[in-house]
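Dig into what follows:
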Amino acid sequence: MQSVTLELRTDDLALLGVIPEGLFEKYEEIELLETLRLEQGWRLQLLRVRRRGALKTAAELERESRRIRAMYGLESFELVERRPRTRDYILLVRQRNPERLRRLLSLAGGEISPTAPFRLTPEKVVASFHGEERALRRVLKRLDREEFPYRVLRASGRPQLPEEAREALTPLQAKLVARAWVLGYYAVPRRVTLTRLARHSGRSAPAYGKVLRRAEGRLVQRWLATEGGFLEEAGGPTVAREP
């Protein structure tokens, strides 16, 4: 598996149709927090959007929903959180992919996914992707053939984790814990409910909660085990390694 981070010009992505024209007249920065679904025809993504000036209220966004969707070519968007101090919205956005992006996704064959860091500003976009090396090479070769300008900032394989770290969480647990963290489930006070987390992930709240509890148990056990045998001294139970 390979990771690559590219720098592209925002204007070029606007020509590609990935970024709506005029987007940065009202917004300063957009950060892709997570891609929940990526298909050739559409994408479902969690975004942090920083507005120029004061944020609109949730009620104002709801009233202007149709206009906003038409203006930015969105199929739907949902306000997850408002952060007035930093002028940020956290939004769940579903958007149709333009034809050129569809062709690139077809070329990738489902073997590439966006990852952090992924930030868009009025001048440039820093975009990171992780996937099979051969698929990444195919896509970059196509961009070269079409003379689409980009600069490679970084390219490397994913660092190998120690065996004990890899065993701490299952891939599903790691994914759902990371999503809960990003959306503020572990913040004080909590910024998102378990029910809302579950809805974003297509799971029931009890099922999502069970995955989180198992993951939390594993992480606590791992931490206690590093504290000089504290777990044994405290007489704590061993956490079962469930899938």
